[in-house]
Amino acid sequence: MKEFDLIRCYFTPADLPGDVHLGVGDDAALLCVPPDHELVVSVDTLVQGVHFPVDTPSGAIGHKALAVNLSDLAAMGATPRWVTLALTLPGEDTAWVEAFARGFLDLARSHEVALVGGDTTRGPLTLTVQAMGVVPTGAALRRDGARPGEAILVTGTVGDAALALRELGRGRADPRLRARLDRPEPRVAAGRALRGLASACIDVSDGLAQDLGHILAASGVGATLETARLPLSPAFREVMGTEDVDWSLPLAGGDDYELLFTAPQGAVEALCRTLAGLGCPATVIGRTETEPGLRILDPQGNPLPLERGGYAHFDS
């Protein structure tokens, strides 16, 4: 199938929302940002064997390619509106593309996101997605708003995707863990709910400790994090079994795509109640402090050394 036939067949929506004046099929899209809103833009590239295992089904790849970008918008408190897709394929495989498009567009529809353009080319399997959303002017969540004495919270559970990768390396994987790796759920509704309540926010993509470090650096504060409080899923605990918990998985494994944020102590109760009502509970895992740096305590309250805080593409 030729490039333009592929685009028309799988990536040209039948209808477009009113804020898209021109979508797929021209040199560029024409989009209408609502009054009194700011445009929020994020871009991510996913490479086979780096961001997803080689055996990942194409439908799951389509879902994840969009989900990781929507997670960035969620961390800013934005409402997703539009997306572009650059798809690099090693060869012609219409069945693969059809399943990929279904996974991508099903998630797009669930968040009312319009695909408005992109590119298709031949090469090693690579996907680059640019997501755009809107947020009321001045209301975006940022990394630089944390203050000493605030609570540190994270949504959902952490460590499942990292444990899935470890188990895949051993030739097995619990399907519940594999689902967290292949089909993460962006916390878009939770991000919007945090506007005006959270003081700083980031999504957990490269490792909780490393991503928390970005908030601390941007805000000029330090923190103490308690591993005893980390929310671990039943699947995580079952697979770990009687082993000592490998804390590097929830702390440095990444690929969780949960929201990690800080909030004044007085806002925590109402905030947790709101998120629980959205089906996205949050857990207090630490506190911010005046002293710079991140201090991690094991379940007995002793300092826990962590060799690596998270994933780094160019780490030797």
Description:
The protein has helices spanning 3-10, 58-75, 94-110, 160-169, 175-182, 188-194, 208-219, 234-240, 248-252, 268-277; strands at residues 20-22, 30-31, 37-47, 79-89, 114-122, 126-136, 151-155, 200-203, 222-226, 259-263, 282-289, 293-297. With 316 residues, the chain is of the alpha+beta class. The chain has 2 domains: 3-136, PurM-like, N-terminal domain (60s Ribosomal Protein L30, Chain: A, 2-Layer Sandwich), CATH 3.30.1330; 151-297, Phosphoribosyl-aminoimidazole Synthetase, Chain A, domain 2, CATH 3.90.650. Strand 4 (79-89), helix 3 and strand 5 form a beta-alpha-beta unit. 42% of the residues are buried.
Itemize the secondary structure elements and their pairings.
Blueprint: H1 3-10, E1 20-22, E2 30-31, E3 37-47, H2 58-75, E4 79-89, H3 94-110, E5 114-122, E6 126-136, E7 151-155, H4 160-169, H5 175-182, H6 188-194, E8 200-203, H7 208-219, E9 222-226, H8 234-240, H9 248-252, E10 259-263, H10 268-277, E11 282-289, E12 293-297
Parallel strand pairs: 4-5, 9-12
Antiparallel strand pairs: 1-2, 3-6, 4-6, 7-10, 7-11, 8-10, 9-11
Helix pairs in contact: 2-3, 2-6, 4-5
